[in-house]
C-alpha cells in the first residue's frame, strides 16, 4: 500500500513542478511536451502499480527442489 502512495506522491510532485515551469514559460510547444511527458509518466505509473498488485498475489517464483 505504501508503494502506491509513494508512486502517486511522486507523480503529483512531477505535475506540480511541470505546472510551475509552464506557468513561468507560457509557450505552446513547451506545453505540448509537458503534456506528453505527463501522459507517459501517468501510463508508466499505472503500469508499475498494476504489476506490484499482480506480484503480491502471484506465487510464480522458483520452486525449491524436494
Short descriptors:
66 residues, 2 helices, transmembrane, transmembrane helix, membrane
Q: What's the story with the biggest beta sheet?
A: none
Termini separation (Å)? Answer: 34 Å
> Helix count?
2
Secondary structure: number of strands:
0
Q: Mean pLDDT score, rounded?
A: 86
Tell me the count of domains: 1
Structural class estimated from helices and strands: mainly alpha
Helical content, roughly? Answer: over 70%
What pattern of helices and strands is seen along the backbone? HH
User: Which blocks of ≥5 consecutive residues have pLDDT under 50?
Assistant: none
Would you write up a description of this structure?
There is one protein chain. With 66 residues, the chain is mainly alpha-helical. It has helices at residues 2-24, 28-57. The protein has one domain. It is built from two helices and no strands. The radius of gyration is 18 Å and the shape is elongated. The two termini are 34 Å apart. The mean pLDDT is 86.
Can I get a quick summary?
With 66 residues, the protein is mainly α. The protein is built from two helices and no strands. The protein is 80% helix and 0% strand.
Task: Walk me through the topology.
Layout (H helix, E strand, L loop, with lengths): L1 H23 L3 H30 L9
Keywords: Membrane, Transmembrane, Transmembrane helix
